[in-house]
Amino acid sequence: xxxxxxxxxxxxxxxxxxxxxxxxxxxxxxHEESLNNFGKTIAVLGNGVNxxxxxxxxxxxxxxxxxxxxxxxxxxxxxxxxxxxPKRNRIVRNKRLIIYKQFKLFLNKS
Length: 110
Description:
This protein is mainly alpha-helical.
C-alpha cells in the first residue's frame, strides 16, 4: 500500500493520469491517492455507471464522479457480473498503454 501511494503521488505530481477498475485493494488505493493529490483519476466499471461495485467503494465512486471520471461500456442499471470484468479490464489495459507511452515520453524529456 505504501509503495502504491508513493508511486501514485509521484505520477500525479507529474500530471500522469491514473486509470484503473474500482476494485478493492490497489485499484482503490491508486484512485484515493490520486484524488488526495488533486490528480486526475479514471475508474472503469464492469457495470452501469449508476451501480457501485463493490459497494464498499460507494464513497470513493462518488468522489471520483465529482473530481475525476467514471466510464463504462455498459448502459445504466447493468448489475455487476463476473463476465463483465474481463471486458472492463480490456479497456483499462488499453488506456494504461496510452498512459504508459505518455509516461515514457515524460521520462525521456527529463
